[in-house]
Design goal:
By secondary structure, this protein is mainly alpha-helical. It contains 32 helices and no strands.
């Protein structure tokens, strides 16, 4: 267990969509932490002393973007070496100093974390031994350029905003806008890879050359010159500085600061200990423990992969002792990890964007997610109960205090989580609620001598809050290219019309196409980026056919998140397989089985009139009834995917689940009848088998 725990940051970085960061040391690492801490302080101050939107977002990016270039490797030298190697196989020279190969370099789940905090340094990852990695001259120049192009407009923000008509842009505006575009593309390439970078470039080419497309094509437009494109992206809040960046500069950084304070105050350890103490004696207890721990850890980590690895490093030895095969154990770990993005009270970054796009409180988005989350975990728990019998697992004695003793001693860690919900219910903004909860978590840390947050820990938590949000910031700012181009060219409405036309106006077929499109998009880009792109392209196709915006956004949200457990990439499953040593593909399939309810329930609240009840909308009686029916449907799915031994029973249970999820009186009655037939067939076959 100790060995896995030590390797957790390395494993997280290896399988996370965000690229491993440099290992910084010495004065540079101190400077990065100071800059990160100051940016966190700025985000906290803005909550109570608001700043004009464009100014706030520019200021935030002016600090965050240079940190990306200092904290993340360029990777260009590795690419050059690999390219040369194709033509000169005999050239086996080592990595260049200052730019180690990501495959062998020391990795970290947090940008810039020093070697001492990230685990063992990979041997030969960098020339210079323990001195850390130094940014190159080019990295410093890119960081300086980032500051210049973002501080320049802030010197006279009102005049800059007034010049945003396009024709009024100065030559310096134009140069700065083009430079920022290039810088953001490079930042995204460093943090999340080439896929999103190429997509952004394609959208820029489309904006410039759209006039050359045949006039009969529905995606053709009049074309825009460089000045018009720069004006759209750089001078207002519809491009780089749009809603996605606003979410990163407010919601996301505040919640990452809160998560960092919880972590430093000992909450993560408490959540894991409590989970192991809660289920002690039954053979299904190890699996249920992992699931509960994943849910609780999700309040600290907003990443499915990070939660999977953090959980797996502790829980895999217990699952192995309980008798779980490697692949099912990996499936449980990945399903529990992805629940971190699906579960209140933090959810994932995309949920914050939904609140901004719908102009509703974040508490309302949490209410949307409550019933689907309960159904998600119900499906996992049922699958675990079934598998514990199928695999013959056994109870495992874990050396941990009793649950009662843990709650009495450390139960105060729950208070800040509850406080967030209470404050939002009292009409306090999500920003103020999480800041107050952060202050409470800080104060409560003094109840545990081992985790008291003195000045040094506070500084580290503030720095961690910023450094963890750097990749998301780069993604959100670059996603502004896509959103800005779609808005400027009208592409979103055109593409949504194409989807509707292909589906011949059929809502079921449109929804199927939408789900496939979002998942395919999620295979190439991170969850946040895939949600943003799908929100402006896929969502209008659904709303054109009568789906409410809330239902459409939540559908897109769930399928964007589920791309992390969808083959062939399934990052959370890949990370889990790396921990358990299981077959990667089989682990993906097991994860897909455990998360199946999350794939089907979104169709229910899009396709059926009563589906909005699953989002907590409508009379309370209807909400409770539809939740109960959906719970029966999830149970039928569990039977279909492993709870019943015979193929006929499984097929009948699957049909029953689908019928029940229509959430209408006649299909519900039919579904219950089919489920009863499945149970009867199962009993008859069992009786024949005994005789």
């Amino acid at each position: 267990m100790t060995e896995l725990s030590d390797r957790a940051p390395e494993l997280a970085a290896a399988h996370e969509q965000e690229r491993p960061a440099r290992v910084l040391t010495g004065r540079l690492w101190l400077g990065v932490r100071i800059a990160g801490g100051l940016l966190s302080v700025y985000a906290l101050i803005v909550v109570f002393r608001p700043v004009e939107a464009l100014e706030q977002r520019m200021t935030f990016l002016a600090v965050a973007l240079p940190l990306v270039f200092l904290c993340y490797r360029s990777g260009w030298s590795s690419l050059v070496r690999r390219t040369r190697g194709r033509f000169r196989p005999e050239d086996d020279s080592g990595p260049a100093a200052g730019d180690p190969d990501p495959a062998t370099a020391p990795a970290s789940g947090v940008a810039g974390v020093p070697a001492g905090e990230a685990g063992a340094r990979a041997e030969g990852g960098e020339r210079g031994g323990g001195r850390g990695e130094r940014p190159s001259v080019a990295d410093w120049l890119l960081a300086a350029a980032s500051v210049a192009v973002l501080v320049y407009p802030l010197l006279d923000i009102d005049a800059f905003r007034d010049r945003g008509s396009g024709s009024a842009l100065t030559s310096l505006d134009l140069v700065a806008g083009v430079a920022l575009t290039v810088l953001l593309l490079e930042a995204v390439r460093r943090t999340v890879g080439w896929a999103l970078t190429i997509i952004c470039i394609i959208f820029l080419i489309y904006a410039y050359f759209g006039a050359y497309l045949p006039i009969t094509w529905p995606i053709g437009h009049r074309g825009f010159d460089v000045s018009q494109i720069v004006s759209q992206l750089y001078t207002g809040t519809e491009g780089f500085f749009g809603v996605p960046l606003q979410v990163a500069a407010s919601y996301i950084i505040l919640f990452t600061i809160y998560g960092a304070v919880l972590d430093f105050s000992g909450a993560s350890k408490f959540f894991i200990d409590l989970s192991f103490a809660a289920f002690r004696r039954s053979r299904s207890a190890p699996g249920r423990t992992v699931t509960l721990a994943g849910f609780l850890l999700g309040t600290v980590s907003g990443s499915g992969v990070a939660t999977t690895v953090s959980l797996g490093s502790v829980a895999w030895p217990v699952l192995r002792r309980a008798g779980y095969p490697r692949e099912p154990a990996g499936g449980i770990l990945a399903a529990g990890g992805i629940g971190a993005i699906l579960s209140p009270p933090t959810l994932g970054a995309a949920a914050f964007i939904i609140a901004e796009l719908l102009q509703v409180s974040y508490l309302e988005v949490l209410l949307y997610a409550t019933i689907p989350t309960l159904l998600y975990y119900l499906g996992i728990f049922l699958a675990i109960e079934i598998d514990s019998r199928r695999f013959g697992t056994r109870a495992v004695e874990v050396d941990a205090p009793s649950a009662g003793r843990l709650l009495l001693r450390f139960g105060y860690h729950f208070s800040s989580l509850i406080l967030i919900i209470v404050l939002m219910a009292l009409d306090r903004s999500a920003f103020q609620s999480v800041v107050v909860a952060t202050a409470i978590a800080f104060a409560l840390s003094f109840l545990d001598p081992a985790h008291r947050m003195g000045p040094r820990r506070v500084g580290e938590a503030l720095a961690k809050g910023t450094l963890e949000v750097l990749p998301v910031t780069a993604v959100c700012a670059a996603a502004g290219i896509i959103v800005g181009v779609i808005t400027q060219t009208g592409l979103g409405l055109n593409l949504s019309s194409i989807i509707v036309d292909v589906a011949a106006g059929n809502l079921l077929l449109t929804t199927l196409l939408a789900g496939v499109a979002v998942m395919l998009l999620g295979l190439a880009v991170p969850v946040t980026a895939s949600f943003i792109i799908a929100a402006v392209i896929i969502r209008p196709a659904l709303t054109q056919l009568g789906v409410t915006p809330a239902e459409a956004y939540m559908f897109v949200f769930y399928y964007a998140v589920l791309s992390e457990v969808s083959p062939p990439t399934a990052l959370s499953a890949v990370a889990a397989a790396a921990i358990t040593g299981g077959n990667t593909y089989k682990t993906m399939m097991m994860t897909w089985r455990y998360t199946l309810p999350a794939f089907l329930v979104p169709f229910a609240f899009v396709l059926t009139p009563n589906g909005q009840a699953l989002l907590g909308q409508g009379p309370i009686g209807t909400v409770l009834l539809m939740a109960a029916v959906s719970a029966v449907a999830v149970a039928a799915l569990a039977m279909a995917t492993g709870g019943l031994p015979g193929v006929p029973e499984r097929l009948l249970a699957a049909v029953a689940a689908v019928l029940l999820l229509f959430l209408e009186p006649v299909p519900i009655a039919a579904g219950l009848a089919v489920l009863a037939v499945a149970a009867a067939v199962h009993l008859i076959r069992q009786r024949r088998h005994r005789t």
